[in-house]
Amino acid sequence: MGVADIESIFASRLDQFGALDAKLKFDFGDDTLFIDGTQTPATLSHADDDADTTIVISPADLEKILHGQLDATMAFMTGKLKVKGSTALALKLSSVLK
Description:
Order of helices and strands: HHEEEEHHEH
CATH architecture: 2-Layer Sandwich
Strand order of the largest sheet: 3-2-1-4-5
Number of helices: 5
């Protein structure tokens, strides 16, 4: 699974991301996915814009979270997932990723 596959999964969950009413960025190092949940409907792009919360993670680890093979909290505690910005928003985000 690569960033394109993750983008497809996220696109199918834009309503859930929109419910967070925030700007989120997933930073994969060489690529990003930016979700603007403040727009109606929420938008998804590869923009490297400012976000309320930025999640730094590898595509492989995010894939494991999306498929229930890795707990997001455990990924955070082991350094596989890093949060920049609002940790409270990152905690809410975990429900969208399941």
